[in-house]
Amino acid sequence: MTNAFVESLLLGGVLGGCSTGLALAWGRVRGPWGTPGPGAAEGAPLVPLTGGHGIGLGLIAGAGILERFPPAGPVPAAVVVLGSLFLALGILDDLHRPSPRLRLVVEAIVGAGSAFCIAPVLGGGSLLMTLLWVLIVVNGTNFLDGSDGAAGSASLGSLVAIGLLGTGGSAVVGGLCAGILVPFLILNCARPSRLQLGDGGARMVGAILAVLSLPYLYGGRWVTAIGLVLLPVAEVGTTVARRVYGRRRLLVGDRQHLGDRLLERGWSPRQVATVAFLISFCCASLCLWGG
Hints:
This protein has 291 residues and is mainly alpha-helical. The protein has 12 helices and 2 strands, in the order αββααααααααααα. It has one domain (2-290).
């Protein structure tokens, strides 16, 4: 699958460069905007939260192209459907900031509907298991987004490993999504950051990873599935444990996620992003190669 990975990676890079440029231009004019990430200079301008818009646009264009090639199979359609739904949900979150409880309820409804649609397409599996997996990976990826570049770099590491060592449509789509992410990360990791994922982008990238790891979950390869999304799963696990142990409300956010703690210890956002990429790539590669 190396040739297919390289071709899809290059295709994603071209599409991602164009769509990210459009998203940056749109965000500068129309927003929404967010505060600069940790480490930004005091008085730095607001940053567009439209990185997810660009990734989504590139994904839709790329999936439309890949649908014409049999090796891709049904994976591009499943990625686009689930990714687009969570992108739309996240954009509404960026614009209106609903309560955590309402957000979770809507996520569960969206996840249940999408699980009903994509589970049979990807080889079948328990709808409840699919729903829980999607919610864990989506929210875990969003938790990682507290530091510029962390969520995107962690996702990039997993996508590159899937593209190099995966099989069938997952490998092709992994390469495509990895290519789309690279132009965004260049802007996201700039100092100061010029573009951020926003809740929509973080949730969409998490949905992409959930779809690409689900076939392994359905096949009983739990270790491989978890290895592909190790950091998002670890984020959810440590967050739940921390809040339960501290007797705090589960749905109330905080700044004690893994990336936040590294920033508090003096790490730069780029260092956090680099480590996130390396951990994700190494764990995903070992699980795919060993599995």
